[in-house]
Design a protein that fits this description.
Elements (H helix, E strand, L loop, with lengths): L2 H14 L7 H4 L11 E3 L5 E4 L12 E9 L3 E9 L4 H23 L4 E2 L3 E4 L12 E11 L2 E12 L8
Antiparallel strand pairs: 1-2, 2-7, 3-4, 3-5, 3-6, 4-8, 7-8
């Protein structure tokens, strides 16, 4: 992208309240929250609403992680942290919606193609490795409101600027 186009994109992002994904301000602040879907209807299964960040990961005993990688200028590792008694197919689809909306928002605001990987389910007794190096990590909480019940789950966003060999 030439400097004139980059300037136009950055100006439009600033006006929309979003910053480019490779802007260090976005990567190191809670501005990423603006990219996440704030709420959405989940078919006939209620509504999903973004809550305030709980600040730290709760006990992972009996939890399941569902990992998505959103890839464009950088890699965004999005991990759903949820109770293992929940229906994984339902929450995998919910994660797909969140990841797809993040990728779509980034694509609309950065002139870069963004893709998501299929979900990978990881049980709490498996060892997971965090991508290195980590540029940013932030935890968010969503509530799934269905009938008179509220089901909380967390979304961990980890950004990494790993470059492929040969790239500057």
């Amino acid at each position: 992208m030439n400097s004139k186009n980059k300037s136009i994109v950055q100006s439009s992002l600033s006006n929309s309240g979003l910053l480019p994904i490779n802007d260090s301000t976005l990567l190191r602040t809670n501005e990423f929250r603006k990219i996440l879907p704030q709420s959405f209807n989940f078919y006939s299964l209620g509504q999903v609403v973004l809550q305030q960040s709980p600040g730290r990961i709760t006990d992972q005993t009996g939890k399941t992680e569902i990992l998505y990688i959103i890839e464009g200028d950088t890699k965004i590792f999005m991990t759903l942290l949820l109770d293992s008694t929940l229906d994984l197919s339902i929450y995998s689809e919910m994660g797909n919606i969140i990841a797809a909306r993040v990728a779509s928002t980034l694509e609309q605001n950065s002139n870069t193609d963004w893709m998501i990987t299929p979900p990978v389910c990881i049980q709490s007794n498996e060892i997971t490795k965090t991508p290195q190096p980590i540029d940013f990590s932030q935890l968010y909480e969503y509530h799934h409101l269905i009938d008179l019940e509220t089901i909380a789950f967390q979304v961990l966003i980890t950004l990494s600027h790993q470059r492929e060999a040969g790239n500057a």
